Amino acid sequence: MVSYRLGQAARVLGVSVDTVRRLADDGRLGAVRTRGQQRLVDGRKLAQIAGQVAAEGGEGEPVSSARNHLLGIVTRVVKDKVAAQVELRCGPFRVVSLLTRESVDELGLAPGVLAYAVVKATNVVVELATDVARPADKARS
Prior knowledge:
This protein has 141 residues and is an alpha+beta fold. It contains five helices and seven strands.
């Protein structure tokens, strides 16, 4: 039997650990206790319930396959006849999105408006971290 800790199950389901505890307490999610009293969730039961939780909408959040929702404030909008560029400041991150002008107008995006940058990517760009020592460098010191 493949089993998972409650925190891992919560991440898989996209819910809180408390929700996973409730599902286990209600008998909807099979869980056993280890010798150290840590609860482990049965992987097969987790797979079965994952579809149900997704259909219920998780924790009341909008159902979306994109997992990265960054709340930010619009800092700049540049529009032409067809396309637009929207810049958001999401905490320490600057996010720039290219979308249609029609979408920008319909959403009312303008500097000062709160909006989410929803990131769903099929590609990931990896950049060299020059400000952090590499593991080999740490081993030599």
